[in-house]
Automatic annotation (TrEMBL):
RCC repeat windows: 12-79, 108-158, 159-212
Native organism taxonomy: Eukaryota, Metazoa, Chordata, Craniata, Vertebrata
PANTHER family hit by this protein: REGULATOR OF CHROMOSOME CONDENSATION (PTHR45982:SF9)
Gene name tied to this protein: Rcc1
Chain coiled-coil ranges: none
InterPro entries registered for this protein in UniProt: Ran_GTPase-activating (IPR051553), RCC1/BLIP-II (IPR009091), Reg_chr_condens (IPR000408)
A GO CC term attached to the entry: cytoplasm
Name the UniProt record assigns to this protein: RCC1 protein
Single GO term (MF): guanyl-nucleotide exchange factor activity
PROSITE patterns the UniProt entry points to: RCC1_2 (PS00626), RCC1_3 (PS50012)
Amino acid sequence: GNDHLVMLTVDGDLFTCGCGEQGQLGRVPALFTNRGGRKGLERLLVPQRVPVRGKGNRSKIRFQDTFCGAYVTFAVTQEGHIYGFGLSNYHQLGELHLHLSTSPACFGKAYSLGRAEYGRLGLGAGAEEKSTPTLIPDLPSICSVACGASVGYAVSSDGRAFAWGMGTNYQLGTGEEEDVLSPVEMTGKQLENRVVLAVSSGGQHTVLLVRDKEQS
């Protein structure tokens, strides 16, 4: 994240370190987020396991993936549950009572929630802040998604990339700096004969992992 690090072990444990002022470490009480309390800065700066257990008497939860936002952390369990902790000033963690099923109701669909300015949710003109996952319309079957500070991306099952959000610094690949409120396909000479495998975004730039169609 902006000032914290999350690590996933081969055993499915989650470790965090860094700044915990917004709850993004998932293990430090608010009272100790400044200097670490009696344990000192070691509580913050030395990687330590995030203690997470399921409801009732279920055994320890094990994770298979994790990723960060600026001041938030998400982790996916081996059963497909999503856990999140940290800053949620624009509902980026969803609602506290929200229940996500482990059995997907649909496959290949992209959803967004949180702050809507600059078109970062991809929900079109007039979209407002969302506190629950909302389907992004007009996209083909999607196999992966990514986001930056104010942008969003999706990679389709047939190897195309779509982008939306703030266009400043040309990070949407449209050749323009205008904001894009709904997903548009990223095109250009360099992508004509290539299949997009993955996309990732930094603060003001985008990187695409591609493969020549001849190799597909």
